[in-house]
Structures are given as C-alpha cells and as structure tokens.
Amino acid sequence: MGLKSKTTKKQPDIEEQQQIQTRKQPLLGEPIRPNVGTNETNRGSCCARMFFASMPLLSSALIVAFLYILIFEGKNDPTQVLIAQAMAGYERQQEIKAIALMGSAFAIITTIAREVQIRVYFTRDGTYTCCLQAMNSIGALANILAYVGYLLTVFNKYDAEDETKAFLHVVGLLLFFILAPLYALLQCALLFKQTQYSMFIKIIFLLMAVLEYAVVIGYLVLKENAIIIEWFAVALISMYTGLFFILFLIDPVDDELKEYFSFGCCRKKSGSSERKDRPSVSKRNDPPANNRAEDIELA
Fold first, then answer.
1. Which pTM was predicted?
2. Among 206, 178, 177, which Cα is nearest to 191's?
3. Rounded CA gap, 231 and 210, in Å?
4. What digits encode the pLDDT tens for the residues 161-183?
C-alpha cells in the first residue's frame, strides 16, 4: 500500500486574465468595461451607444452644412464676406437658423454626455479629485456658453438697427471664439489622464486643439484683414466636436448616460431587469466542501 498524491492545477484568476487580454492595446483604445448582459440589455446598450456617438457627428455635419449653404447657395466669397454679412444677405433665414439651432443643440448634448463620461471614468478609477472635477465642470460650461454665443451671433444681425441686437451679436461672437478653444484645451488635459484611449487618439485631439487655438487667435488679431480665417475657425471648431464620436464608441458608458438624460427613470427599469436576469451568485460561487490542495487516494 502506498500513498499517491495528485496536485490540482491552479486556475488563473479574473484579474490575470484581464491583464493578459489588455497587454496589446488596439490603435484607438478599448473600453474600461465590456458590455455584457441579456440580449435585450445588449440591444438597448447598442442603441444608446449609436445615439450618443451620432450626436457629435450630426453637430459637426450641420454646422459645416450651414457654412456650405452660405457659400454656395448664397453665392458668397469667403475671402471677401464675413459670415455675418453672408447671413444678412441670405433670403431663406428660417432654414439657415434652424440648421444652426440643431447643430448647436447636438453640440450641447455632446458636451453634457462627455462631462458625464469623464465623471464616470474617474469616479470608477477613484481619482476624481477636486482639480479634475473643476476642469470637467468649467470645460463643459465653457462649451455650452460657446454654442449659446454661436446662436446669439446667428439670430442677431451685426448691422441691426436695434443696438441691443448688434451688441448681442458681438457678445456671441466673443463667447464662441474664446470659450470653444478653452474647452478644447481642457478636454486634452483630461483626455491624457484617461488610460482607455490610445496615444494616437490623444495626439490627434491635441493637434486639433492647438490648431483651433492658433486659428482663433489669428482671427481675433487680424479680424477683417483675414476674413477667410473666420470661416475656417468655425469649421475647425465643429470638426473638433465631431471627433468625440470616437470617444463614445470606445467608452460609451451607456447606462450612466441613459440614466442622466432620462432623469433617473432608466435606473429603476434596468435595476429590476438585472435582478431578474442575474443568476444565483451563492450557488455559483459556493466554495467546495473539501478545500485541500491535494487529493489523496489509496493506491
């Protein structure tokens, strides 16, 4: 008779498996958490992801379309005519104002969604300090005010007989061209602290922000001596907003955004469905009765 020992193989735990999977980071980056759940919840997450990813693209496309209509349909030369002058001479005022309004609305929704996304990431990471919170809040407020200024510029003619409207036009112009580049720089500072995005994306956002700031400074300094810079600055700011669709595709935080924009209504619904579909944890994770490292059998 003798004793024969059979050692059990040690299974790698979940953290080791995640580290193995994240060693090779894709070019754009990867989400901080996978989307798992039932088919119904996955479909809802997919729809939410596409909705929030489309917001920046729609905003950018509408503002570029706004400029396109003024140049080609309005037959304006961007090297000779300011945007305000082109707006004043355009016949279909209601249509062009509606396009500007929708573009600004989508940009504001994108700004709020990005603020929620940053807050969720740093809260989960445990590094949401007062400094990061201030940068996030100030940046979001600055961009919202920038697009409010854009609407003030569009809805108030620069050569209006009413002095108040002419003043609001100038105020809106300054808000847009000062606060939008500020938001771009704050976003770059926050983006470089997020590890789920690759360096490739961060460099693209940084280059766009620096170019945006340079163009806006050139416009504010040269003003009427370089009219085309105004058109290019507006297009560049809208294109920077359009880049946010990449960030929402990689790290959508669907549940938090749905909860935020539905004022908490989706939280109750998703919470009840999760409890219903969640398997029994106690049965699945029950420790074995015999927790010995070796099984001893009789030879």
1. 0.75
2. 206
3. 17
4. 888 988 999 999 999 999 999 99
